[in-house]
Design a protein that fits this description.
single chain; alpha/beta; Glucose Oxidase, domain 1; 2 domains; two-stranded antiparallel ribbon; 12 helices
Length: about 300
C-alpha cells in the first residue's frame, strides 16, 4: 500500500508539472498522500474533514496548550504571531482552505486564467477560493506579505466569505474596507495590514496546496485556531489529541484553583504529582460538574487511563 501511495503521489506531481497552470487546485490524490495519517472522513476534494464538534471545542482552548501538545509531537513550525486582528474579541476556529499568490507574471497567469474560465470560475482569481468554502472553513492565503496593491478582499468579499463559512480569514497580505469588515458580526481576520488600494500585479497560483504563513507550514484540512497571541495550525490527525489534552489541562487547572481557594490542598500538593486521594477527588469533581467537562466521559476516561500522574 505504501508503494502504491508513493507511485500515485509522484505521478500526480509529474502530471502537475507537465500541465503547469492546468491544476489550479491540488489534485485530490496529492492532498490524501500528504495527509495520509488522517484516517477519518474527507471532503470530495480530499481535504480531511475534522468534525464540527471538534472545531467548536477548539475555540475554547488556549494557543499555549495547543502549541505544547504539538511541540511534543515534533511539530515546531505551526505558530505565527504579529498580526493586525479584525474583531479580536472572538476566536477564529475552523478547517483550512489554502491559497497561494505570487507577483504577476503574464506567461504564467494566462494559462491559469484560461483554465479558470474553462472550469466556469467567476470573477477575479482572488474570489475563486471563496467559492469552495463551506461552513467552518477558513480562507488562509499566502500573499507574500504584500499590503499596498495586495488587498485580497474588501467588505463585499468579506461578506461572501462569512456567509459561506461563518468564520473569517488569515492573510499574509493586506485587506481594504476595514470598517466594513469590522461591521460583519462574527467575522474574524488576521491580516498584515490595511490599505485603500485594490489588488494589482498579483496572481493566484494555487488552491489547497501546501503554503507558508510566516514561520508556519500550512496544509489544506489543518485546523486553525486564532486568538490575540496569533494563529496556530493543527494537523488534522492531531486535532482530537490536541483538543482533548488542552481541555484536560484546563479542567485540572480549574479543579486545582478551586481547591486552593477552598484551602483543601496546599500549593505544594497541587503543583506536584497528585496523590491517589487528589486524583479520586478530581474524578468525582469532574463527574459532578459536567459543565466543566467539555469532552465526553469516554474521552476523559481514556485520558485518565493513559496519563502518567
Amino acid at each position: 500500500m505504501k508503494i502504491k501511495a508513493i507511485i500515485i503521489f509522484y505521478l500526480a506531481i509529474s502530471l502537475s508539472f507537465m500541465s503547469f497552470g492546468q491544476n489550479i487546485q491540488m489534485p485530490k490524490e496529492m492532498i490524501m498522500t500528504y495527509s495520509q495519517q488522517w484516517k477519518g472522513e474527507r471532503f470530495p476534494d480530499g481535504r480531511p474533514k475534522v468534525s464540527d464538534d471538534l472545531v467548536k471545542r477548539l475555540a475554547n482552548i488556549s494557543i499555549e496548550e495547543a502549541w505544547g501538545v504539538m511541540r511534543g509531537e515534533g511539530y515546531e513550525s505551526q505558530f505565527e504571531g504579529n498580526w493586525q486582528i479584525i474583531n479580536p474579541n472572538k476566536p477564529l476556529a475552523g478547517r483550512v482552505v489554502t491559497a497561494q499568490y505570487m507577483p504577476m507574471r503574464p506567461d504564467v497567469n494566462t494559462p491559469i486564467m484560461e483554465k479558470g474560465k474553462s472550469e466556469n470560475r467567476k470573477g477575479s482569481s482572488n474570489s475563486w477560493p471563496i467559492d469552495l468554502l463551506q461552513e467552518n472553513d477558513v480562507y488562509v492565503a499566502d500573499g507574500y506579505g504584500k499590503i499596498i496593491d495586495g488587498t485580497l478582499i474588501g467588505d463585499n468579499l468579506g461578506n461572501s466569505i462569512y456567509a459561506k463559512s461563518k468564520t473569517g480569514v488569515v492573510f499574509d497580505a493586506g485587506i481594504r474596507d476595514l470598517e466594513g469588515l469590522e461591521a460583519i458580526d462574527g467575522f474574524v481576520g488576521f491580516v498584515r495590514g490595511v490599505d485603500p488600494s485594490f489588488i494589482k500585479n498579483e496572481m493566484l497560483t494555487g488552491i489547497n496546496y501546501p503554503i507558508r504563513i510566516g514561520r508556519a507550514t500550512v496544509m489544506p484540512g489543518d485546523l486553525i485556531l486564532g486568538k490575540r497571541e496569533g494563529v496556530i495550525f493543527i494537523p488534522a490527525h492531531l486535532a482530537e489529541k490536541v483538543i482533548s489534552t488542552a481541555e484536560f489541562i484546563g479542567m485540572t487547572d480549574a479543579f486545582g484553583h478551586l481547591r486552593l481557594k477552598q484551602g483543601k490542598y496546599t500549593p505544594g500538593q497541587i503543583d506536584q504529582k497528585w496523590t491517589d486521594d487528589i486524583k479520586a477527588d478530581f474524578v468525582k469533581w469532574a463527574d459532578e460538574n459536567p459543565d466543566k467537562r467539555p469532552m465526553s466521559k469516554a474521552e476523559l476516561a481514556k485520558i485518565l487511563k493513559d496519563k502518567n500522574w
